[in-house]
Amino acid sequence: MLVLFTSICFSSSPSCSFQNTILTNITVSNTCSAFNKITIGSNTSLDVIQLKILSNANVQMYEIVNCVGNGSIVQYSYSRMNLKKETNFYNTAKLEMNENSQLTINNKINFWHYSQITFKDRAILNILKEFYINDYVTVVLHHETIINTAYLFYLTDHSIFTMNDDSIIHTLNYLYIYGATLLMNSYTKIIGLEYLNVFNKAQVTLNDHSEINNNLFIFKFENSFLTLNKFSKINNINDFNVIKGSILTMNGIKDTPQITTNTLRFKSGVKLNIAGKSLISVNTEFVFVDSIIIVNNRDIRDLPVVFYSSSKELDIKNSKIQSDSDFDVICSWMAISITNIFPGTKLLLGGKLLRYGTSNKIFCHVEDVINKNVKYSEFYCPCDDMEDWYITPLPNMTSLYVKINSPKTSSKTRFIRSDEFSSESVTIGNTQISFYKSDRVILGISIPETVVMNSFTLTKTVLVVSNTKLIFENKHFNAAININQKFKILVIHCTKEIYNKTSQQCEDPTICDDVNCKYCPLNKNNCITCKNHFSFDNSKCEQIANCELTFSNRCLKCLTGFLLRDGLCVSDATCLLVQFDGKCQICNKNNGYIYNNGECVKSDINGEVTTNNNVVSCYKGFGTNSTNCLKCNDLYKKSELCENGKVTKCDSSSKMDTNGMCKKNTCETPNDQNGRCTTAIDNCIFLSNGKCNECENGYILHNNKCNKNGESNCITQKNFGCLICNNTFYLDELTKQCVSCDSSCLTCVETSTKCLSCPPNMYLSNYKCNTNNELKMKCDRYASFGSGCVVCKDGYYRVGLDCFKCDQKCKTCNNKYSCLTCNSTNYKTNGGDCLPQSDIVGCAVNVTQSGCLKCQDGYHIANTNECQKCNDNCNTCTTTRNKCTSCVNSRVLLANKSCVGLSQVSKCKEITHSKCSKCSFWYSPIEDGTLCESRAVWWVILVVVLFVLIVFVILIISIIVVTKIILNKLHTHEIEKTITLFNMNKSNINFVPLRGGVSVSSTVIDLNSDIEQIEVNKETRQVLCVGNTNKNATKIQFTISSNITKFTIRVDPEVVTLKSNFACEFSVFVKPLCSCKINNTIQLVS
Known about the structure:
5% helix, transmembrane, Growth_fac_rcpt_cys_sf, disordered N terminus, Furin_repeat, TKL_Ser/Thr_kinase, transmembrane helix
């Protein structure tokens, strides 16, 4: 019935009666068609002019539609509009589509110069030809809105296109983005494209779960910016080209491809910024020439940046990588044969992995386990036993199955007991498992024999379950869990005992901790069965309280005031009075309970007043059946409200009869367009909301009646009323009559004083006709063709032929809100506004109408001509307030342009000119003064060297002296064995002094002092003591004439060196050779 009605309305829709130029608000509430060219709004008026298509209305327009200046088209919920010819929006014009509205454009549509488009709540725009968005146009798509384009889609010249919620663009051909911005949020999508061209510093940003998804699609990205955030992605691209200084930034937080393409080419100064965990999947060809990869927050534990599944050789030339840590660059299905691809990289695993850095550890990432078969992300996994590799489950993995072969003995030492990965990994036999990317994982182990497990300092939560025994700290077990760096064994192997989970010990099952427990086979702290007359209470066997009669572990009858529940006696807050059999008699109404079939049940939430046994009254819209509250419509058909067992209001399709019941309306055939019955109007064939919209042939609509006679001042009349009035009349939309214009107007619209054109020597301004006398104070040049102004004085702006005063903050302006220059006390901001010059704080020179040219220390230039205060620690800073160029006293300027205190620069003692100028002993500031580094002090080294040399010399001299003393001592000791030396001061010999400080005990050696004659040929000994009275040591020896022939003489010792005041005993031996007299002289030499 509804479809038939709609079809009839569409085929016989009346004319919309639109003027060629719409300068007043117009509302359309039904189905109509327009056959004339229509212009909505004006560039010379500030009043908003709206064409409103109300809910469920349907409008067809068969000629060109232009919306300009203050004009706008607004479609309300479920409205439909079809534009057959070209459609244009100019100069801030607006298009707004609301809930479930639909706009179909059979020709091309253009949006120009600050136009605005807003789509809301499942609105649909269908465009059969070109779609142009040019010159600062703003487009916003909201909840589930759809744009369908069949041909070209252009987004150019600083326009901003924002997609929100679940909005979709479906285009079957080309999308061009030139110097504009496309922002995709939430779950938005662009699908069906064949060609996307982004160039001239355009910006495309995909956030949240947004997606560009196409088949056989070419993507060209030139000198522009592409940013992929969070879970956003670009899928199924055939040819992806990023060239000429473009910047591609990937901030994905999921370990999945953010770009999937057959061919990927980076050429000519392209920057690939990788700041997340996502990756790029390339199927056919990968080219990277004269470009750079910049990687942050990524290391070898993450997936490789590029997965390349083609056998075609990589084409990488004149490119480089920037990264603070080692990471995997490319995972290739075929071995990479070329070398020196990027500086600082190397090939691993037979050329299938290209790594930046020096590490040799391999991480194989698990993305799924199917039928106990592990699926790895990388082509080269799993690795053999000669590699130092880790099994690494991805974040989506909550369980992991690992089959471990018997440990093999290898000459290569692979496993390290503790390294930088210890806190995230376990080692089972010769298998290493890293939980860097996952947590709360169930790890299933299949191994043919018992092996040792090491968890080191694992910080992740992991449940380990094995089909055979594992060994950890000499304990055999099958299951264990690691939580908060504590490894707890869950299933341990015991022989005859039972494993105690609390103590983690094997214990005797027959001994229970609870004396009232009868049986505890699994754990002596976990009772299974209590003794008679006891039952479980908080995991303990307690005597059944408040019970009058018990049997085994259950109570059969409770004491008065208690309820019997599950064999126990409990005090129930739902019951106020208990019967003798233990059942409740009166329920606790205050707690929201009523009595029903012997039980206390929760009363209906829609109940307003209740008693112990039933619901007395319900809230609005509900009625009671004494037990529950039901909707009125469930109790009484076709009712909306009810009370005290009666209907008080029927629904919209019914009316109340004399019995108080709701009956369906008797009107079966609605005569109104809105589907209802209304009072018929004679000779009217089309009614809407009680008003006649169209009369029968031969009748004219006038004052909501169909008359035979027409309107005398009407030029064009139809059976639904007058369409066009005479020039000096206007059409009253309410009465459909032609009313005379005011004498001041030549033509008018809506009212008699709202002029559209003026008599000679007058000009139109804001729908009024004025003379040049009103322009004397504000016009510089009058129109040569009649009245009106073409050039306004400073301080005024022109609208049409009239001049209006600028805002007081402006000196000159081009409209009420936009200043060209500011007055003498204001300055013009970067955004075009005029603000008081006193608002600028921190300017080093006088503020002018152009703003501030130079800021004081402590401030920086902001918005090209304003000053903004630097960070409190900055003395001067850049355009970013937290980036300092110099610091306040006692602060050091670091490389990241932040200022820190003395305590934050280790070893620094003094700061000068934002640099550390003096450090602790043995430290010196580096060239930029940001830190102190250990540096040797030359004079300390010199002092140490000199000290060592002096000590060395002294040591040598000491050794020489000591050696000499020792030798002298030894020599003296040897001499003392054969020579008698003594101290002259301690001797009683009277010495006779000789010359030279020498003294003798006697000057004459008398051989006959003891005997008259001495024997011939026999030596006779005589003793002579010689002493040294000099201050210095003196050498003493005797000399004898060599001409002696009659005897021989010798002295022992021959030579002696005497110290001061020491004397020596000399033995003089004389041997006569014949009988003779000996009288000779012996010389003493000293």
